[in-house]
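Figure 3 (text version): structure tokens given as input.
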């Protein structure tokens, strides 16, 4: 146990977060997500971390307590668009997540992009790791792009 670090962050997850560099991505996924297949995909195996006792909102909160989002891109957050719904539709979980991200100062809703299911899978294949939660709400899958930690240089 470490002081000041969310106890939900396991040693394996802390290792993944520490090894990620600027622009690397991590996926926080619901319990229905095809995590094993995508973790073992053609781009080589990636860490698959199971946190079955927590939902997407709680795990995202813990991860983002240590992981800065990429300020150099317009949309450092992507989430899976609910299939067969009109443009702009958000599930209750997605609405709560966007509100949580904005309230914590991580990202405003315009910085969070709904991504078609198979396009989302393509991004997941390039991600550094997948965190599989116990979230039962379908389409509760979010991808976060890591930013930098450090002093901002003045012009």
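Below: residues designed for each position.
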């Amino acid at each position: 146990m470490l002081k000041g670090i969310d106890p939900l962050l396991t040693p394996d997850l802390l290792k993944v977060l520490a090894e990620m560099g600027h622009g690397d991505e991590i996926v926080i996924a619901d319990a229905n997500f095809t995590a094993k297949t995508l973790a073992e995909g053609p781009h080589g195996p990636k860490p698959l971390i199971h946190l079955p006792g927590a939902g997407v909102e709680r795990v995202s909160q813990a991860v983002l307590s240590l992981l800065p989002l990429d300020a150099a891109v317009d949309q450092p957050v992507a989430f899976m668009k609910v299939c067969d719904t009109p443009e702009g539709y958000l599930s209750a979980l997605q609405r709560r997540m966007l509100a949580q991200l904005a309230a914590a100062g991580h990202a405003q809703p315009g910085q969070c992009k709904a991504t078609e299911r198979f396009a989302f899978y393509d991004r997941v294949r390039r991600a550094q790791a997948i965190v599989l939660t116990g979230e039962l709400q379908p389409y509760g899958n979010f991808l976060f792009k890591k930013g930098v930690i450090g002093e901002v240089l003045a012009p």
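The chain has one domain: 11-145.
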